[in-house]
Structure prediction request, 70 residues.
Amino acid sequence: MNTLPAETLELRAADQRRRLRSSVHELKDRVREKLDVKRNISQHVLLASAVAGAVSLAFGFGFAGMFTRK
Prediction:
């Protein structure tokens, strides 16, 4: 059987709960930071501009293609 007193087990459980809560808060902060759209776009302005330009160009050619005869 378990030879540790109940008080020691309760202290260990409380410590583990604190560490788990801290880990969860740290994970939430990291995820929130990674998924921050404004921050990511400001860090990758050139790539965001290139993607927006390519998408606009593709839509423009598609829209123009609807009105041209072949």
